[in-house]
Design a protein that fits this description.
155 residues, alpha/beta, 7 strands, 18% strand, globular
Amino acid sequence: MIRLALYQPDIAQNTGTILRLAACLGFAVDIVEPAGFPVSDRSFRRSGMDYLDHVSWTRHDDFAAFERWRANEGRRLVLMTTRAALPYADFAFRSGDVVMAGRESAGVPEDVHAAADARILIPMQPAMRSLNVAVSAAMVAGEALRQFGAFPAQG
């Protein structure tokens, strides 16, 4: 299964929504700090609701700590970015991939781009800049689950 990573998220409600998504679809989330809000259950309760008790999430003090963890785990970093050329639906996800979303306000810095093993984008109408980070995470996670045939069973 994949993991979703959020690079220095700015908006607690988006993070809570992504945590709820992860709980419902069965994947883990990594939060790379510093965030633009206190990283705590209280910050996520409104959008994450009671789903927070059902998701596995890990805080990383900074990108260097995240990279040490990722290297130790042998995981591939897949960056969602508007600067990519490869549409996410054409990308072959692998079990263990960490799909990263950038900050709502600024994306990710150049060193994070350079560290990525792959870069994917969500094709949009030419005049549009970007989608909401939670919407993007849902689209890409859904495609990865489709490729793996790993949507949770009903019932």
